[in-house]
Design goal:
Layout: E1 11-21, H1 28-31, E2 41-51, E3 54-64, E4 67-78, H2 83-93, E5 103-108, E6 121-126, H3 134-145, H4 151-161, E7 175-176, H5 177-180, H6 183-188, H7 192-197, E8 201-206, E9 212-218, H8 221-233, E10 246-249, H9 255-263, E11 268-271, H10 277-286, E12 289-292, E13 300-303, E14 308-309
């Protein structure tokens, strides 16, 4: 597995006061008795690890007709660490860039470190001759600033962004359902930040042999997926078009998660939670195998069952 070491700036120690019943209230849940206010309470002062949430400002710069132009792409909240992968993955999944070849450099331009000593402002310098897709940039800003977009509009936008074809005859019956049941546990073993804080989402990428490729964590479930996409794009050897990959997320499955999966060319998306109706519609549109409620014993397949088999 490629290294996905946790940043030392991703969590910090804080003081806390914990209150708890000195002993359990017997039979209250079973009998429906009203809580007894006279039960003894314990009070304990200790320390806890909490996840860090900080803004990330992404600036774009490019040259057009001999003139240097720049704009703010977005300001988003994230857990610090692997910012370069998050930036690349986000720009790619939104169709602003076509790949890492379009990026000359990504560098911090924070004038001063904040109280957490973090670099929260970054500049993406586009490669000479490449002009970012500002139409996609405009659509991104609208979709994140308005709640009035309908599902059909979102699907049309996704069709405009990508020409990805996820269907391949080589993938028919290629995944054993039984083998999928173990993937959340494998991902869980690498969720270091979740162990320390309990406050992050995770996204993990597996190949067709179900070998773990990447695991990334972030307070934002979309960010975790973008970090996986960024890591996939920066591989020294590009993945083969016919290669099958499985993305597992530790959350519910929204339309945005499906969008990012489709844009990355990943054919199977599985989550431990439920998918939304629009997520299912998008999976049907692009022939993505969409799996929800995945655990060690069962799962629900909402589309793309043709990739799975139930043989031993």
């Amino acid at each position: 597995m490629n290294t996905t070491e946790t940043s030392h700036t991703a969590a910090k120690t804080i003081n806390k006061v914990s209150y708890a019943l000195a002993k359990p209230c017997e039979n209250s849940a079973r009998t429906g008795l009203i809580f007894d206010n006279n039960l003894p309470i314990t009070r304990k002062v200790s320390q806890d690890m909490v996840i860090i949430e900080q803004p990330l400002k992404i600036n774009l710069a490019w040259q057009e007709q001999g003139e240097i132009k720049n704009t703010v792409f977005t300001i988003t909240m994230r857990t610090p660490g692997h910012d370069n992968l998050l930036i690349v993955g986000l720009l790619f999944s939104e169709g602003v860039i076509n790949g890492t070849d379009d990026v000359e450099s990504i560098e911090s331009i924070s004038e001063e470190l904040n109280s957490e000593r973090l670099n929260n402002e970054w500049l993406v310098q586009c490669h000479h001759g490449f002009i970012p897709d500002l139409d996609n940039l405009e659509r991104f800003m609208i979709s994140y600033s308005s709640c009035g977009l309908c599902g059909s509009t979102s699907l049309k936008k996704l069709r405009l962004k990508t020409k990805v074809n996820l269907t391949s005859k080589f993938h028919k019956n290629s995944l054993s359902v039984n083998s999928l049941f173990g993937l959340p546990k494998l991902m869980r073993q690498h969720q270091v930040l979740f162990d320390n804080t309990g406050g992050v989402h995770s996204a993990a990428l597996f190949n067709d042999l179900l070998a773990l490729q990447f695991v990334y964590e972030d307070i934002g479930r979309h960010n975790a997926v973008d970090k996986v996409t960024g890591a996939l794009l920066t591989l020294t050897e590009p993945i083969r078009a016919e290669a099958l990959h499985i993305l597992v997320v530790s959350s519910r499955i929204s339309f945005e998660i499906v969008q990012k999966t489709v844009m990355a060319g990943i054919q199977v998306l599985a989550g431990v939670g439920a998918p939304s109706d629009l997520a299912i519609k998008a999976a049907q549109q692009f022939d993505l195998t969409l799996i929800g409620f995945l655990n060690e014993q069962s799962c629900n397949v909402y589309h793309g069952d043709w990739r799975l088999n139930s043989d031993g």
